[in-house]
Amino acid sequence: MLVKVRGRCAVLSSTNFLAVLLPLLTALFGPLAAAAVANGSGTSITTSTTTAAGSVTPAPTVVDASSVKTKHRYAYLGCYNETTGIADSSGARALDGGINEVLPGNMTVRDCLTFCGDGSTQYKYAGLEYSRECWCAQRLSDLSTKFPDNVCNLGCDGNQTQACGGNLKLTIYMLSAAPPVARVAVSAGAAVAIMILVNIC
Q1: pLDDT value of position 54
Q2: CA nearest 36: which of 62, 73, 11?
Q3: Considering the entire predicted model, what is its pTM?
Q4: How far apart are the C-alpha atoms of 29 and 44, rounded to whole Å?
Q5: Please, which residues bridge with residue 81 across strands?
Q6: How far apart (Å, rounded) are the C-alpha atoms in residues 160 and 150?
Q7: CB 81: neighbour CB atoms within 10 A?
Q8: Which regions of the chain does DSSP assign to beta strands (E)?
Q9: Helix orientation angle between 31-39 and 14-29, rounded to the nearest 10 degrees
Q10: Cβ(91)–Cβ(80) below 8 Å
Q11: Are 194 and 34 in contact (CB under 8 A)?
């Protein structure tokens, strides 16, 4: 591919082009955007941590909600902060006014999506927090801010490979018949980043 990078024309292979593009995508849109371009899909980058004993534990990853069998379809929305400690929230939660359940030792993404979507009321939002908590509500607080996916870094009590929020952070899914929001955002983001980075000679 013939491209202009920093004012100079050069021929870049697809590998070299990705090497130039991925750092920009990561800075602008986070690691999931870079992973989606690198892998050609919405697949996240899996990192790992090393314990004191020296064993490697894979970091929890976001679950593709379309693979979870429930009556109603949810799509991953993102990692959001809890709002109970924010001054203007009056102590209200990010997912307030709905229902919740806590399953110490057992919570999974499927359990939460089923709890929020398969009852007599289908809640628009399902959020997992602190590995074991599931929160369901019809609205997400405007005070809740989206964070990079890796900030929701706690695995679910019932399946440590699945991301279940964090300390005052929620892994949030939204009831939807549409494709997952993250995939659409990554495709649009990749196109914008390419236009910013590269001018065709």
Answers
A1: 54
A2: 62
A3: 0.61
A4: 13
A5: 169
A6: 14
A7: 20
A8: 2-5, 8-11, 48-50, 56-58, 74-81, 99-102, 125-129, 133-137, 146-147, 155-156, 159-163, 169-175, 199-200
A9: 160
A10: no
A11: no
